[in-house]
Amino acid sequence: MFIKSRIFRARPRYTLRVELFEVSNERREREREMRAAGRLPPGQSLTLKWPVLHAGSVPRFDPRTWELRVFGLVEELLRISWEEFSNLSQSEVFADMHCVTRWSRFDNHWGGLLATELMKRVKLRPEARHVMVHAEQGYTANLPLSDFLHPTTIFALRHDGEPLTVEHGYPLRLVVPHLYAWKSVKWVRGIELLDRELPGFWEANGYHIYGDPFKEQRYSS
Questions:
Q1: Alpha-carbon distance 206 to 37, whole Å?
Q2: Which of 1, 14, 113, 121 is deepest in the core (most CB within 10 A)?
Q3: How far is residue 152 CA from its own chain's centroid?
Q4: pTM of the entire predicted model
């Protein structure tokens, strides 16, 4: 298929690697093309690389104990082991990625399980309106349910035809392409259904509650 909370209030710790905006004619020309096509949000610059940026350290993965939980306002808790998740029907999404730190990477090819497919396995309670994404080390990010169920939201296992690297979220990364990349949570372990909007990790530390790159919703006012 192809389709085009625990909250930490201490000072966040960043991991940021690679030079973001290499000096090359190729990059400048590509950036002009993306801007002319209306695909480069305001305040962003194109990168041909894939920067690494996250709070905290890279967690260890043990496939024997790993599980994904869907809980909260659902009729029944869903637990999926790594073996089960790896054997679910998978799809592909082609999408751009925009980071709040002002880089944009275009035409990413993601492979994995669509969020809409995962949610076919649970029955939501009528009052469910929002989602809190839970990851390793207590990291969280909030989403409206409608954005979580957007047709390009995907639980990614692969990027550009290769398995995700651990620094980019292996074994599982939730990718929400139409919002800033802090909403594309690495090392996902749980999806909590809520009846109200609550801030996640970065939202509680000054980032915008929603994060639309084309509206430059970087920080809370």
A1: 31
A2: 113
A3: 11
A4: 0.88
Residue 156 has which token pair? 């990614």
Q: Taking a C-beta distance cutoff of 8 angstroms, is the pair 157, 163 a contact?
A: yes
- For 12-215, which CATH class? alpha beta
Neighbouring-strand partners of residue 133:
141, 191
Q: Looking at residue 37, what DSSP letter applies?
A: T
Q: Per-residue DSSP letters for 27-83?
A: HHHHHHHHHHTT-S-TT-EE-SS--EEEESPPPP--TTT-EEEEEESBSS-EEEEHH
What is d(CA 72, CA 127) in angstroms, rounded to the nearest whole number?
11
The number of angstroms, rounded, from the C-alpha of 44 to the middle of its chain's C-alpha atoms is 18
The amino acid that residue 165 corresponds to is: T
In order of 24, 57, 76, 179, the CA distances from 91 in angstroms are 34, 29, 25, 20
As a whole number of angstroms, the distance between CA 12 and CA 206 comes to 11
Each of the 221 residues of the chain gets a pLDDT tens digit; together they read 434 333 333 434 444 444 555 668 899 999 999 999 999 999 999 999 988 877 778 999 999 999 999 999 999 999 999 999 999 999 999 999 999 999 999 999 999 999 999 999 999 999 999 999 999 999 999 999 999 999 999 999 999 999 999 999 999 999 999 999 999 999 999 999 999 999 999 999 999 999 999 999 999 97
Amino acid, res. 62:
D
The Cα-based distances of 129 to 24, 146, 188, 207 in angstroms read 45, 8, 20, 21
* Sign of the CA dihedral running 7, 169, 215, 147: negative
